[in-house]
Design brief:
InterPro entries: CCDC78. The chain has helices at about 1-15, 25-145, 155-215, 230-280, 285-365. By secondary structure, the protein is mostly helical. The longest helix has about 120 residues, at about 25-145.
Length: about 375
């Protein structure tokens, strides 16, 4: 306003008293200036109102954005807490799975030792049966040697032999039942180990999936620890071993067949000679012929008993050896698989723990 009055004074000073005739022009200019002033004031008021409206709109938008930002911060805080809890849970699961893997490895070593002990026990039982059979044959010979003509009786000798056979069979069945029970326990333990390994593999895959879904993009990309799948070379080696084993079994069966044929021929010749002796003994006195017939029958029973018992023992030993070999192969496969994957699991667990530590540190730093 002061500038306006100064401008008016300058305009008035330009006019002299002699120029009163221009008074009307001056008044008109003053009126025009006043009207311009009013227009400027009105425009200023309108501009101020417009600015206030814009400021109010911006303030409302700022408040809305601030509320959204606070909601986003609270949501991120909750997600960060949940992520920390999930990472702690993952670490606990990793520790639990590592402990289970170590215990499975120890169980594998224990099963291997038990399998070796069973093999040794089987050899000891075979030697024990052989010695017991020899002792029984010796006892029969001593019994027959001590008996005289009046004491010798085919029925009593047959009863004595039957008692010995029952004792051998009972002992053999008991030991066989114990070995079969132990073999079933070994198979059940092997199945439990396989199930534990499958659960460990599935837990590891779920752990990797959870970490990748939670944004841990730096998870080391390694091969997935799926179930054991043998390679072509392993299959060929296993097939060659199986073929070699079957060839050896066929060779042993042929050899045993030849031995049985030779024994059968020998027994047939002996039986023929015994029949000839019996025909000759018909010409002897009655008492001496009875004694000779008893000794011939005793020798025949002993030969049959020896052959049958040995054949049964050999067949049982072969079946038990086959089962033990199968158990050893299963344990060897499990041992190879666990040895090859244990180190990889441990390295992967260390990497995941390091990654979880780095992720937690980065979250604290960002916070």
């Amino acid at each position: 306003m002061q500038e306006y009055y100064d401008q008016l004074r300058r305009i008035a000073s330009k006019f002299s008293r002699s120029s009163l005739r221009d008074k009307d022009d001056l008044s008109k200019s003053v009126l025009s200036l006043q009207s311009e002033k009013l227009e400027l004031e009105k425009q200023l008021i309108q501009n101020s109102q417009h600015r206030e409206g814009k400021v109010e709109v911006l303030r409302v938008q700022h408040q809305r954005e601030l509320v959204k930002l606070e909601d986003r911060i609270s949501k991120l805080t909750r997600e960060m807490k949940e992520g920390k809890e999930s990472f702690r849970e993952i670490q606990r699961k990793l520790a639990h799975q590592s402990a289970e893997l170590i215990s499975a490895n120890g169980e594998r070593h224990r099963l291997h030792e038990e399998n070796n002990n069973l093999d040794l026990r089987l050899k000891e039982l075979s030697a024990e049966y052989t010695n017991r059979l020899q002792q029984y044959i010796h006892d029969i010979a001593v019994f027959c040697g001590k008996a005289n003509e009046k004491q010798l009786s085919i029925e009593s000798l047959q009863a004595y032999i039957d008692v010995m056979v029952r004792q051998i069979r009972d002992s053999h069945e008991k030991k066989e039942e114990g070995l079969e029970n132990r073999l079933r326990e070994l198979k059940a333990t092997i199945r439990d180990m396989v199930q534990k390994h499958e659960s460990l593999s599935s837990a590891y895959r779920m752990l990797r999936y959870d970490m990748e879904s939670k944004g841990a993009r730096e998870v080391p990309q390694v091969d997935q620890p799926d179930l054991y799948v043998p390679s072509e070379s392993e299959l060929q080696m296993a097939q060659s071993r199986e073929i070699a084993k079957l060839t050896a079994d066929v060779r042993e069966l042929k050899q045993s067949n030849e031995d049985l044929k030779q024994k059968l021929a020998t027994n047939t010749s002996r039986f023929t000679s015994d029949e000839q002796q019996q025909d000759q003994q018909l010409l002897l006195p009655a008492g001496q012929a009875t004694v000779e017939m008893g000794w011939g029958y005793l020798r025949k029973q002993l030969r049959e008993f020896t052959l049958n018992t040995q054949q049964d023992l050999e067949s049982e030993r072969a079946s038990l050896m086959t089962r033990c070999i199968m158990a050893e192969e299963q344990l060897a496969r499990l041992q190879h698989y666990i040895d090859t994957n244990l180190k990889r699991y441990q390295e992967e667990i260390v990497r995941l723990r390091a990654l979880l530590g780095n992720t937690s540190t980065g979250a604290h730093t960002r916070r």
